[in-house]
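User: Hi! I'm working on a homework problem where we have to compare a predicted structure to a textbook description. Could you give me the structure for the chain below?
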Amino acid sequence: MDEEVYISVSGTSGQVALFAGSGLGDIERKANLEFGKNVQEVMAFTRLSEESVLFCVGGYDKAVHCYVVGRKEKQFTFVCSLTGHENAIRALSFNEDSTLLASASQDNSIRLWRLTDEKEEEGYQTKTCFVFVDAHTKSTHNLKLESVLSGHSEAVSSV
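Assistant: Happy to help. Predicted structure tokens:
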């Protein structure tokens, strides 16, 4: 199977677009999201399986919105919004093995969210733990708040 290339784009119109293809000459628009006046400036994505990608966006509305996008689909499936920041999200990044998502904010903090496949937690959700099922593989995933890194003297703009 060819390695899929993903490119995400956002603008001041509040729209986020995801482009994908099997190579740079094969890129096409895959899906759109509309956020209206809640401009989403930062994006991060990671592969959940050979069939799907977890796509996360953050911006002025202080939340990280997470979606699953299937390799063969042209739409986003909403899974959760990670909340807790008190100001705009300025950066998002997954670590190398995709087990942690870092969200940095103008509230002078970084939140670390752990991504796991722990099936025993299915059905357990709180304000800081979200469980979702990837419809493409039927596998269960959890996104839960691991840590809050606070005490920065100014807004955090990269992670």
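For your comparison, note the following. The chain has a mean pLDDT of 85. The CA atoms of residues 63 and 83 lie 5 Å apart. Good luck with the assignment!
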